[in-house]
Here is the input.
Amino acid sequence: MGRVVLVTGVSRGLGSRFARLVSADPGVDRVIGVDVVPPRGDMGDVRFIRADIRNPVITKVIAGEEVDTVVHLSVLASPGSAGGRSSMKELNVIGTMQLLAACQKAPGLRHLVVKSSAEVYGSSSRDPAMFREDMGPKRMPRSGFAKDAIEVEGYVRGFARRRPEVSVTMLRPATLIGPTAGSPMVQYFRLPVLPTVLGFDARLQFLHESDLLDALRHATTSGVHGTFNVAGEGVLMLSQAVRRLGKPSVSLPGFAFNSVGQMLRRSRVADFPPDQQSYLTFGRGVDTRRMRDVLGFVPAYTTEAAFEDLCRELGPGLVSPERVATVEGAVAHALGSARG
Amino acid sequence: MADAEIIPLGTRGRPGRGTGSNKPSAAARSLAGGAAKRPGDARPTPKKRTAPPRPVDEPAETPGEAAVGPADERVEQPVKEAPEPTYDGLQEASAVEPDPGTAGATSGTSTRDRAPGAGIPVSDWLNAFTHASKEVFGEAWEPRLAQFLAFLRRRVTGDYAVDEYGFDREVTQRFFLAAVRPIAQKWFRVEVRGAENIPVEGGALVVSNHSGTLPVDGLMTAVSIHDHTGRHLRPLGADLVFRLPLVGEIARKGGATLACNDDAERMLSGGELVGVWPEGFKGIGKPYSERYKLQRFGRGGFVSAALRTGVPIVPCSVVGAEEIYPLVGNIPSLARLLGVPYIPITPFFPLLGPLGLVPLPSKWLIEFGEPIRTDSYDEGAADDPMLVFNVTDQVRETIQQTLYSLLMQRRSVFF
Here is the structure.
């Protein structure tokens, strides 16, 4: 008998793609998608049940459908998609609490997969170069998605203690980018002029969206217990990323950067969560040794390749590599002819 | 070539300099060429104006870019090559205006002469540039210039790699080390001893004394190690370094990372040559009267990192750094306000302003001692506090004794 997988947050891009992907897996019998709004587009074999995970009705769904695997994907990274910060927090924290309460009551549950985020490590000047899974944040994030993710992880750990026979896989993906990803960092890179923090250059680490899907599928089917950082190989500096995009950037001192961020947020040009400033100042790196050795997953894209994919989608900027190469050729030619 | 002929003085009319009003001197008349010889002609200026552009024109056309030909366009030719369009208008005005002695025409001429780069043809610029690049890059300048251009292109398009700590090898070698090297060689005249004690490969921990108010000793040690072994020293810095704008950015690009056990062990097990200054701010910010007295070596975290990874500890003693900024005072209240460990007062610093930031040219000696092996200890050695204290003391004593012997050998502070 195959497995019955319940996926939350299925009407969002990541959730629907994951549900379709996992329904094609031979070891999976049925996939049930849950969300508050119906998904757009074709869902294939996925059965959609309209239910709010903040509501105890989810208990009946889990029990009635004999679900043995729950994949919790509706921990949202940006307030824009949830319609405001307060409803985002409600969905993230209360939704997770209710879902876990329902899971605890489900005797048939064998496996829980939760997508958290590498943002639980925060970003500060006291950070180690690479965070391992057993490290905590050096400066506790006090707001935004990072705080939600920390709270969600706390509830998941509590659940794992109370139901030791359920294997709990928690993934902490690095900054998600890709052609269809709508994460705050992708929105940032879409800005025509990129604000950066004067005197700081953040180390960035990316995960391609297709790699996140693969990692989630791998975690769902392999059932490895534990918490894992998921990120592409290598590190890209913010200045380097800006140059690769070929877009102009403006270096602003910290306080001015803050107000520009507020302006962007208010004018709804881009989701610019307050914790993004510290990320763009200090950056963050996560150690992926456990992902390779214990989880047994290797992303197809390195950080560099994932960013290149985004660059391709955004198109060449003002200072495209072709133009620079042309200028270089012209200068070399002029010097050569001057000598001859 | 009529202009070049030798003008015999005193043979054409009255000697002297002329009145300057309506009668130019004989010498001036002959200099102005044949047309100006008409006496009583009060218009020498238009001739002067048309005469100078000619020699400017000629070399501009030699590169053979275009045979622009027509004589009437000649006057405008240099204007086309020079980038300033405003200048074009001026030139035209002075060419059209027939009125001779007006100020406008004269100033037009003089502005033209004064304009930067005006009249210097492109080929001359290129020649100068090729000469300059020969000077800078040497005889094989062409491939090296091409390399440099490729380097610039890589920098502009972001096509380079950094490691996971943010270390930018290319920019460190080309700029940071190149900027520090002359200071080490010419200003401090760093003398390195025992460079053979630095392992050529594999992880190792260089432990050094810290002094000099600003961490100049770290930079000098890094450049000395690179020049003697070709390896990059990866310094471990206090979190203040990474909190400061610009300083933190440069430190990360130069290969530094935060001084914490996680990063130290990660770097050492990655086979890097890691530098650590366990005295920290207590060492670097100690008053001049306590020079060359080692402070407490932290909590011995560096020893446990070396024990866990089994890498050798290379003691490094730096003499000379204490004298670069003799710290005679401190402003603790201001330091607290700014969140830094101290605000130094040196004999020159607040007194001479930025000039006080120039370090005194003391003579430096850097000695690397024999490596202390840590791989012979058994598994749990890093968790044995007594062993860690003992090894810490051993390293500290080695450095202190080397400092004393180096001080004995040094003839004077500055030579």
In short: DSSP finds 13 helices and 13 strands in chain A. Chain A touches chain B through 43 residues (CB under 8 Å). The two ends of chain A are 80 Å apart (CA to CA). The first helix of chain A runs from residue 13 to 23.
